[in-house]
Amino acid sequence: MIGSETEAPTIIACNANINFEGGGPTGPVANGVIYSAPVANGVIYSENPNFFVTKDSPSVFSEEKGNHVAMEVLSSKNLKQGGLNKGFIETKAPIESVKAAVSKFGGIVDWKARRVHSMVERSKTVDERLEGVQDDILHFRKKSDQAVVEEFQVLKELENTKKRIEELKHALEVAQTEEQQAKQDSELAKLRLEEMEQGTTEENDDALAKAQLEMAMAGHAAAVSELKSIKEELEILRNEFALLVCERDAAVKNADDALAASVEGAKALEELSMELVALKQSLQSAQASHLEAEEQRMSAAMAKEQDCLKWRKELDDAEEEFCRLNLQVLSIEDLKLKVDTASSLLSDLKAEMMAYMESVMREEISDEHVLEGDVSEIVKKIDAATLSAVDSKKMELEEVKLNIEKAIAEVECLKMAATSLKSELEVEKFTLTTTKKREVELDKNMSEIVVQGNVKEAEENSVDLTNQLKQAEEEVDKAKSIAQMAREELQKIKIEAEQAKAESKAVESRLLAAQKEIEASNASKMLALSAIQALQESSDSSETTKEDSPTTVTISLEEYNELSEHAREAEEQARIKVTEAISQIEAAKESEAKCQEMLEEVSRELAARQEVLKAATDKESEAEEGKFAAEQELRIWRTEQEQLRKEEKSSQEVASPTTSPRTSFEVKESTADEQADSPAPEEPSAKEQTQKSLGRTETLSETKDGKKKKKSFFPKMLTLLGKQKSSRHKST
To answer: Is-contact 393 514, C-beta < 8 A?
Structure first.
């Protein structure tokens, strides 16, 4: 019942509640609802679950009932029959999320847990099948034993029949000899009868001949009857022999069928055991992958949180540095403004002084001499302070340049060490790939060994080998983790080197700023000196004018105080600039010392990592040697197994039956008696196999134990790295 796609939206009533979110599909829907076009958001509640064909043009009648709208949908058939399909469309809000919609139709399932559950179910089914196959094997073994017993009984009956046939043959030979004697007697009797007919003998002879003839005839008849009975018995025995031969053939066929069934059961058991081992391995790998995924997720979350904290700290530090730089820029701008104002004031004062001195030079010579002495003292003080500050700053700049060159050289050394570590990591990756390939080959060899051995021995050896392989995988994972740690540390070292470069660049920028400030102070000094020289020239000119004219220049106390205040302000500004430059140089020295400490720590960490890499390479070489030894042992074991198989085949060919049936029966009886008295001949070979497999496992376990003893090095290195990280964080 599918509606047409070209028609208007047609809803067919049903007996279930269905939610539609954002329109529905164009086709059959669960719980019996079929519609032909998208439906509005809402829930359909049906009262009369009668379906009708959507191709018929339906009639729709609607009426309001409280908060709902009752909608009647009638088909042409139902209109004729008076049928009615009612439904309430609920005008609630649609489903908000896909999760809620999925939960309406059965909920959410964790596919990983379900996968693990399916693997467990498969393992259970395989176990059940294994148990069934084992039961079948026991049943077929019982049947084969019964067939062997029946064959033994049939062979005994055949032997008895053969003995009876030989006895009957002997009796038949005796009867044949008696028959020949009877024939001779009858011939003699015939000759005598002929003689009696001729009348050549007497009457007494006739009577004797008749008596002898009768006796011969009676013996002949008895011999004939015995011969007939013997022939009948022979035919009966032949029939019985044929029946026994048929029964023997049937028993042999049954025994062959039972053996073939047991062999097939053993093969099926081996296949199922292999499937079980594979399922167990896949289950373990799935669990391990699940745990690894969870660990990776947790580690990623922790790393994300740590990165967020680091980024926040870096942002805070950057904001603080930005604010500090802004303050420095503002202070520099203020100083520039002050210098500009001071220079403008000085120029104005110079102009005023020149004009005033030209006008009032002849009035007050004594006051002018006092002013000249004060100005000379101020100039001397400024010269001494500025010269000492400039010399100290030059020395500090040279030291900072040397330190920057040293830091650059150390950074280049670190780059070279990083490249060498990268090359060593590539070599380690190559060795890891080779070890993985050899592990895959070892897995294949071990699977072949498990298939060739018995089931119980294979299970025990597989458990040991799986444990050993797990240990090898753990060691490989640890080596991988160490390599990852080394990579992370290299990345951190690169980041720290970049930070050191940035800090060195910042120090250089600060030094340039200090140099510019020193140049500005030198310029201000030159301006002050030029002003002083101008004053001296003006004083000299005033003296010459004094000599020429008795008039002198007089300055008021207010002007003198203003000039002295301007000079003091200039001195204070110069001192402030010098102190700021000294503080900047000290900060640069501190940053340089920190960079040197960081470089020393990085060099130490590089040395420690190189030692770790050497230890890892040594361990990998030892693991390769152990794997080579295991491969050689496996090859030796294979050659021994092939030799044993060849010897068994040759012994079977030598012991194949070539004698008569009686001798073959005797050989079978003797072999059966030997089997009843002594254990099976295959047991010592199985024991030898178990001893050899145990010897291999012992050698492998010894190699693994040697690896285990050297595992204590890794946690030590991890603790050392943790201590170095903690010390680094403390220093930062």
So the answer is: yes
Question: Could you tell me the pTM of the whole model?
Answer: 0.22
Burial of 348 (0-12, 13-18, 19+ CB in 10 A): exposed
Encoded tokens for 702: 């010894």
Are 386 and 525 in contact by the 8 Å Cβ rule? The answer is: yes
- Do residues 486 and 425 make contact, with C-beta atoms less than 8 angstroms apart? yes
Neighbours of 716 (CB within 10 A): 10
Q: Around 435, how many Cα atoms within 13 Å sit in the side-chain half-sphere?
A: 24
What CA–CA distance (Å, rounded) separates 78 from 56? 11
Identity (one letter) of the amino acid at 500? A
What is the mean pLDDT for each group of 10 consecutive residues in the chain (732 residues)?
38 40 41 38 41 43 44 46 50 66 62 64 79 82 82 83 82 80 77 69 61 73 78 81 81 78 77 80 78 81 81 79 76 72 70 68 55 56 60 69 70 69 73 74 66 53 60 66 68 70 68 68 66 64 51 63 75 75 74 74 76 77 76 81 83 58 41 42 41 44 42 52 55 51
Distance CA(581)–CA(328), nearest Å, equals: 12
Sign of CA dihedral 179, 183, 189, 193: positive
Residue 263 and residue 116: Cα distance in Å, rounded? 34
CB of 56 within 8 A of CB of 23?
Answer: no
Q: Which of 576, 579, 703, 559 is nearest to 632 (CA)?
A: 703
Contact, 17 vs 24, CB < 8 A?
no
Its CATH architecture, for the domain 112-296, is: Orthogonal Bundle (1.10)
Say if CB 41 and CB 21 are below 8 A apart.
yes
SS (H, E, C) 529-564: HHHHHHHHHHHHHHHHHHHHCCCECCCCHHHHHHHH
